[in-house]
Design a protein that fits this description.
This protein is of the alpha/beta class. Helix content is 39%, strand content 16%. The protein binds NADP nicotinamide-adenine-dinucleotide phosphate (NAP). The site of NADP nicotinamide-adenine-dinucleotide phosphate has 27 residues, from helix 7, helix 8 and helix 12.
Length: 485
């Protein structure tokens, strides 16, 4: 039995506690919120050795990878703290009264901004025990937006979830935040109960398509439906153009293999399908390049899912094995490359363009670059799509046909870089049309993710003293204000 970070409370009690904290936190000045969030980041850094040791025991991820992930996590908290002090995310708009407003009727005094949406439920991911878990991006965004958070811990790292929560709770309270700013609930059924709870006002999720879809449907079937920001599956196709394939096969092959084997291929942005010209030297280079040895996957559920999905794609009539090792189809796999053709993909996209969560890639050969645009247009929604090409005619012509199709199908389109490694920045977009996400207008990474947990409200004809400070004349908080457009 796992000891909860806040032991002995029922799911209902945990939600109520989070809701009470959320009301206090929403009314806490932005500068205070930022100070608390920075204190949380400092405390997580200070507890790094202890937390990383637990993460290693529970996830089989390498120490260096976990160190980098914790650094990313605390950076993320700090950049979000900076963001709420800058204030552009609150989208303050002020329209002063205008008797001559050309619409045909006078314009009233209208003042609009984004306010906290209310208590957030965050379903943590298995594959990023820090950056997409208890203190990860969704939690950081929800806290920055002014909401308390209940995290549904992932069953793959329960002790780390509780240990992380304790560090966050102690730091937050010591910095003056209300008790209950962050709580953790364990268990699949408790997660569902929390999602149905009327006090929860938004939810986020990172995981598989079936689980994400089931939870999205529950969120929508509530008497009061709530926004559900699910980041689900993605295959992240990469298209290698002919001139690039001829000019730099080894660089492309090594870069691709590094991208699909990093973190044992358990990344939502892993480029699972690689399109290359038929007979291309990239294929020989893929066979020759060195790959890491066998290593365990995150947990038993992911390992059994991996072997089953890999077997089902490998047994497809149009698929052959390009490269595999003795351990490829085991719970501690090594890199596997399967091979098929563009014709086969067009004939059965669902059977072949499918996420295999582990160190596997499907190499798709094409006879004519003209085959690629129809495939790109037929793709399901993706987190990313990649073009590997040289800036020479031919490759550029192909790119011109691919870019509009890929921008239509994916949240992030890359040129000559691999999609794994999602930087936390101001312009980052980590999302995409369904099934990559359940909310294609949003991002799960980067500062733009904060607005998922905000809600607009306009005040009409209000006296200054009753307005939120951000909307008052004279701009007492100094936030960016858009005045009269
Ligand atoms: P998962 O099975 O989707 O689980 C994610 C979360 O949802 C967990 O908290 C889980 O609870 C909960 N859950 C699962 N099924 C549920 C249901 N029917 N009703 C209510 N809650 C449910 O994801 P996973 O364990 O991380 O990995 C499984 C597969 O997901 C992987 O093999 C991979 O294909 C995919 N995945 C994708 C991404 C991505 O970013 N796209 C990331 C990770 C995994 P419990 O843990 O308590 O069961």
């Amino acid at each position: 039995m796992t000891e909860n970070a806040t032991p002995t409370l029922t799911t209902d009690q945990l939600v109520s506690r989070v809701a009470a904290a959320s009301a206090v936190w929403a009314a806490t000045p932005y500068a205070e919120r930022a100070r608390v969030i920075r204190a949380i980041a400092d405390a997580l850094d200070a507890a790094g050795a202890e937390l990383i040791a637990i993460a290693q025991e529970e996830t089989a991820l390498a120490e260096g990878r976990l160190q980098g992930e914790l650094k990313r996590t605390t950076f993320q908290l700090r950049i979000f703290a900076d963001e709420i002090e800058r204030g552009a995310c609150f989208d303050v708009r002020i329209d002063r009264p205008d008797a001559e407003w050309p619409m045909g009727a006078p314009r009233p005094d209208l003042r609009r901004m984004l306010i906290p949406i209310g208590p957030v439920l965050n379903f943590a991911a298995s594959n990023f025990p820090f950056a997409f878990s208890v203190a990860g991006g969704d939690t950081a965004a929800a806290l920055a937006a002014g909401n308390a958070v209940l995290v549904k811990a992932h069953s793959g790292h329960p002790r780390l979830s509780d240990a992380t929560a304790r560090v966050v709770q102690e730091a937050a309270v010591a910095a003056g935040a209300p008790e209950g700013l962050l709580e953790v609930v364990h268990g699949t059924e408790n997660g569902v109960e929390a999602l149905k709870h009327p006090l929860i006002k938004a939810a986020s999720f990172t995981g598989s398509i079936p689980a994400g879809r089931a939870l999205f449907d529950i969120a929508n079937a509530r008497p009061e439906p709530i926004p559900f920001y699910g980041e689900l599956g993605s295959v992240n196709p990469a298209f290698v153009a002919p001139a690039a394939a001829a000019a730099r096969p080894v660089e492309i092959a090594e870069g691709y293999l590094a991208s699909i084997t990093g973190s044992q291929g358990q990344l939502c942005t892993k480029p699972g399908v690689l399109f290359v010209p038929e007979g291309s030297p990239v294929i020989d280079a893929l066979l020759d390049a060195a790959v890491p040895g066998p290593a365990p996957l995150l947990n038993d559920r992911i390992a059994s899912g991996f072997v089953a999905t890999l077997e089902s794609v490998a047994e497809h009539g149009a698929v052959s094995v390009l490269r595999e090792g003795a351990a490829s189809r085991t719970a501690e796999p090594e890199a596997t490359l399967l091979q098929t053709t563009a014709d086969a993909v067009l004939a059965d996209p669902e059977g072949l363009i499918t996420e295999v969560f582990g160190p596997v890639g499907l190499v798709v050969t094409y006879a004519d670059p003209a085959e690629l645009a129809p495939i790109a247009r037929s793709l399901e929604g993706q987190l990313t799509a990649t073009i590997v090409a040289d800036e020479v005619e031919g490759d550029l012509e192909l790119a011109r046909t691919l870019v509009p199709a890929l921008a239509d199908r994916a949240g992030r389109v890359l040129w000559n870089q691999w999609p794994t490694g999602v930087s936390v920045t101001y312009a980052q977009q980590h999302g995409g049309p369904y099934p990559a996400t359940t909310a294609s207008g949003t991002t799960a990474v980067g500062t733009a993710s904060i607005t998922r947990f905000l809600r607009p409200v306009a005040f009409q004809n209000f006296p200054d003293a009753l307005l939120p400070e951000a909307l008052r004349d004279g701009n007492p908080l100094g936030l960016p204000q858009s005045i009269d457009g």
